[in-house]
């Protein structure tokens, strides 16, 4: 039970720490100054949301997120948000292509080359499926998470960053709502599909509390580090590199490679999710669909990584507030319905 619980922690954290999060751009877009309370609220809401979704998935023994979504929201709204998830996956595809270009740009390689490389590698992997790259991802993402935590802790110690920032000023607390709601969609999509594999409620408690505390702590460490270099962030598409500035080149390159793999695997996950859904509407092979989706995504990548996250992530955060509200209220509504019977 314990081992499976930790297994689900890895899955949940890996789902959350995609390229937007790992790069620091997502953290800075929602948090920043006076956000300590916001991160605490996010941690609490994430643990509750994770528990509700995983508990429903476990009870329904679901193999797909749609039944879970329908249980939370009802069939009518679930079908609407099902299309929303499709749009979200397409957004992630072109944001990740742009993120690849931005990563290479920080290494003094043209943006175009970084974007072209990930496009070629995405096209190459389509016929082979995603199992191979996800196996690599299960190895690389823990390295990214551990590496990120070590970099942030060393940075905080070396730069003497105050661990408690602006304790009395917490005006940005409300940002916890759109930040949590933004991350509810991938959470539902992933853990809504593992219900048949969860064996006990103990696993659920371990998975939800453990992943929530890990993400809350990393978010806080990341945020106070970014506040310390906030005057430099204007010059970086990827805020992580502002923190890495001054570190040995070897560490800079290692984190760049790990971040790029996070970008690549996020792009693959999004692409194959899109292919699986779109092939229901078109009677062509998956390679044709995949290439078509990539070509459709290319024009959007010209907007730039930071601009895409700056515009789209807050928008999705607002759109998904209803989903978050229904998840948080689900135990209350369910209990009220039972009492009427």
Could you explain the architecture of this structure?
The chain has 341 residues and is an all-alpha fold. α6 crosses α13. It contains 15 helices and no strands. It starts with a helix and ends with a helix. The model has no long low-confidence stretch (mean pLDDT 84). It has one domain: Up-down Bundle (Amino acid/polyamine transporter I), CATH 1.20.1740.10. The relative contact order is 0.22. The longest helix has 32 residues. The chain is globular and about 60 Å long.
Descriptive terms for the model:
mainly alpha, 341 residues, Amino acid/polyamine transporter I, 15 helices, single chain
Q: Please, what is the average pLDDT?
A: 84
Q: Helicity range of the residues?
A: over 70%
CATH domain class name: Mainly Alpha
Report the structural category.
Answer: mainly alpha
Biggest pleated sheet = none
The coarse silhouette is globular
CATH architecture: Up-down Bundle
Radius of gyration: 20 Å
CA-to-CA gap between the ends?
A: 34 Å
- CATH level-4 homologous superfamily: Amino acid/polyamine transporter I
Oligomer type: single chain
Query: What is the number of independent domains?
Result: 1
- Return residue spans where pLDDT drops below 50 for at least 5 consecutive residues: none
Question: Count the helices. How many?
Answer: 15
* CATH topological fold name: Amino acid/polyamine transporter I
Keywords: Membrane, Transmembrane, Transmembrane helix
InterPro entries: YkvI-like
Layout of secondary structure:
Elements: H1 2-16, H2 19-22, H3 25-30, H4 36-60, H5 65-73, H6 75-106, H7 111-125, H8 131-158, H9 176-191, H10 201-228, H11 240-244, H12 249-278, H13 286-301, H14 305-319, H15 321-340
Helix pairs in contact: 1-9, 1-10, 4-5, 4-9, 4-10, 4-15, 5-6, 5-9, 6-7, 6-12, 6-13, 6-14, 7-13, 8-10, 8-12, 9-14, 9-15, 12-13
InterPro entries: YkvI-like
Keywords: Membrane, Transmembrane, Transmembrane helix
Transmembrane segments: 34-54, 80-99, 111-130, 139-157, 177-195, 204-222, 251-276, 288-309, 315-333
